[in-house]
Amino acid sequence: MPKDNSIRSVLIIGSGPIIIGQACEFDYSGSQAARSLREEGIRVILINSNPATIMTDPMMADRVYLLPLTVESLEQILQENQIDAVLPTMGGQTALNLAKEADELGLWEKYGVRLIGVDIKAINKAEDREEFRRFMTEIGVPVAPSRIANSFLEGKEYAQEIGFPLVIRPSYTLGGTGGSFVHSKEELDEALQRGLEASPIHEVLVEKAVLGWKEFELELLRDAADNVVIICTVENMDPMGIHTGDSITVAPAMTLSDTAYQLMRNTAIKMMRSMGNFAGGCNVQFALNPQTEEIIAVEINPRVSRSSALASKATGYPIAKIAAKLAIGYRLDELKNQITGNTSAYFEPALDYVIVKMPRWNFDKFKGADDTLGLQMKSVGEVMAIGRTFPEALQKACQGLENEAIGLGSYGNSSLKIEQLLEKLKRPTWDRVFRIKDALMLGVSIKTIHQLTYIDPWFLHQIQLIVDMEKKLATYHLHDIPDELLREAKQLGFSDRQLAILLRCDSEDEVYEKRKRIGITRTYKMVDTCSAEFEARTPYFYSTFDQVNESIPSPRKKVLVLGSGPNRIGQGIEFDYCCTHGLLAIQECGYEAIMVNCNPETVSTDFDMADKLYFEPVFWEHLREIIDLEKPEGVIVQLGGQTALKLAKNLHENGIHIFGTSFDHMDIAEDRGRFSDMLKELGIPYPRYGTAYTAEEAMAVAKQVGYPVLVRPSYVLGGQRMRIVINEEELEKAVVSLLKHLPGNKILIDHFLDRCQEAEIDAIFDGETFHVMGVMEHIEPAGIHSGDSNAVLPPFNLSPMEVTTMEYYAEKIARALHIQGLINVQFAIKDGVVYVIEANPRASRTTPFIAKAYQVPYLNIATKIILGVNKLKDFQIEKKLNGYAIKEPVFSFNKFPGVNRELGPEMKSTGEAIRFIKDLRDPYFRKLYKERSMLLSK
Q1: Which of 344, 469, 493, 626 has the smallest set of CB atoms within 10 Å of its CB?
Q2: Rounded to two decimals, what is the model's pTM?
Q3: Of 872, 877, 849, 854, nearest to 862 (Cα)?
């Protein structure tokens, strides 16, 4: 059946700002869907409130609305456009809930708009816990015993009836918000209250807990002819009870028998076909009893899910792109698999490699938060690693986490005794996989660890392989290790830095040089969806230690872009936006664009975005071997946030060209002490400061500069470990804590400018011309991290002289640092004096916000200047903004009950939204300004 020609225009609903449980995977899905529909000549209108997304770029849709995700915004769009259909399955739970609300108000019927990709009945069946239970019973699919409760008393009554342990699952929430386990009646009251409050319809499912069962999820696609294809089966390494977003997951499933797998397949297909008459994507989750292989359905999501992006990257199959085409009438067998070019989309992917997804947490940002993992998702991002074996992929995932891990291991950082380890293993925490390895190193049996964790013994045996190899390696030195043993270690994912520690040599460079000399180097394999059964043309690669290399360098001139790794607080989706535009600009300049990143949620890692994609950790060892193979003209580090910038030193020391600003000048900006010295030479005001390496030195500096002081480490993001302290006791505690987590870091002690105004400038400099992209004034006073402040563009309260002074100082700094490309400078203004706080010689969190607010392709312009291809005079820059744009921070405190929500110099927000106002009389702005006055009066 060809496409439905009655659908000429489609509205896509986005997912809004990044929050825990709903991150940039929906930007990836929405972008793919928009491109897919426009290929068919369909006019795409898009609504989202997140300025840091690719999907809200003019190139992605025919018309973009950066508006709050409300029914009022939808009605405005429907009044201004002739829309035939709405696609709500690409924006996560937010989009589904909004589509349902609009339907209940009769909005779709009023404007003659059809829902495609899902129907309202399917949403109700999936999201309403009682409907889901009834639906499963009707079609003969087992579920855990449960009852629905709409009140506190009902919940207590059903809990007694079902018996403990229990699960409380609120209806219509995302990321497991409000969900919890209840092991005893003492825990019940609080859990019930929390669940009922979290549900927008004040409803929870009281369900029997299946603790210790294994968890699996399947990604499916279905067309209008009722054909269903299973794209990927994902196994959670962690047992039931840990949210799948917080679990280490593996594809393909490793511990399923064929009988259980076929039962799961057939059940998932039955569930999807019974959901309703719609075509699109679906995610189904199951629990499996490891003793009997009995399965029960946990939930079904009739939309593109968090796991869809992972499954797409894991298999190379563009789920969202195909789902969008199915929604407009195509059948699976009518669509081509773009990777092979000669098989249909009805061809199920086959994997001849192992995928490991590992979540990334930020518990350090939420002091006092319970770090026990459970039904409510707490991770802020994730990495994906590809290897030939599970141990290789697991160690690569650890290397990509951006938390100082160099593989699976503590290497001197763990001093726990066996009794402490065993106690720790009982409680699922973010570092449990590292503690499992520690326990195995100390001789704890796999049986004991399984009894404590319920993790399948197969995974524990795989970790044991790493342990056995580590013990074997420790008996050798680098000069006498057998070549074959070194090769086996690399095949198990050991990094050169791990090997340098285990073989007791001075540096990873020695290990690298030795293995290079004896021919142990990385080879690259193609992700082709079909286990090499058919020829594939996708330029999507991962590394391993094998004999055959499938990545053949082209003779073209190449530019390599470093991505930003996993999302975390302080570095999120905005850098994917920057990298994506960087890739497009590089291609426009005639270079081959090569992308290196390990974040499966991103648009920049889509298989057809770069000319060549290496899905690898943003980790020096992996990067250097890609550079050895590809021999690019140079590397761009300005677009990937602090992750990419931190690798500039390695690039510089190894003679690899960095496009744009040089390493030494970037280092001046990043090194707090050197930067302040430069400001002194330039005659630019800055807070009194000093540097220290110990608590004693810090106290001496604080006496000189005067309390209160701001304690800051160098080379960090999101204000990591920054503290405002008012006396020696607080200062000593802050410095000791900082040095514990960042040993050897140079600490800057600034006099803190209390009760002053904060502002920032984003700019581009090409060596001759300085262009101010935007001047933003923060509504909150200084002392609150810029990422947690509401920022207004252009300024609303600064005098013309203050703004001119800021621009003058920013240009002076850019010239002194010989910036070629982007720079962000932050200021504090007190009593009419403008002080410089810091400068970031790269794209910043606010770069996409400014680009969207002024409708200027700043990342395209900046990349061409970084490459040295163009000067600013080559571009006609016309800013368009009628009124003001406000950058609103968004927080996920609801995931961490009881934590201190007070804002300070360390960033805590997980995302942002954009709001446009015509003037300063706008009620929303007046409310924010009133809150600012209250903060200043404290």
Answers
A1: 344
A2: 0.93
A3: 872
